[in-house]
Amino acid sequence: MDGEGYPYGVRLADEPLVFRVLPVADAYEALTADRPYRRAMDSEQALTILRSAAGTAYDPHVVEALADVVALRDIDEVG
After folding, report:
1. Residues 11-58: pLDDT tens digits?
2. What is the DSSP string of 34-57?
3. Which three-class secondary structure state does DSSP give residue 23?
């Protein structure tokens, strides 16, 4: 996100929206799914990890948009 990494120091904010959404979605899915080496995290744990990397690895606006969607899903499941 900040241009300090691969590839070639390109800032992720300069990339099309899909290139900012997919890494967040992929990471969230990976964190909230069971893996052979660990159990799935709950959504709050996954969002905490994503938020800790927002602004460096992930677009903070996309992370917060995902958090909003997860919150709406959780409200819908309760109600």
Report:
1. 666 778 998 999 999 999 999 999 999 999 999 999 999 999 999 899
2. -BTTBPPPPHHHHHHHHHHHBTTT
3. helix
- Those residues with Cβ within 8 angstroms of residue 2's Cβ, 6 or more apart along the chain or in another chain: 11, 12, 55, 56
Query: What's the whole-model pTM score?
Result: 0.80
Q: Cα dist. 69→14, 43, 73, 79 in Å?
A: 24, 11, 6, 15
Cβ contacts of residue 25 below 8 Å, gap of 6+? Answer: 66
Residue with tokens 């241009």: 3
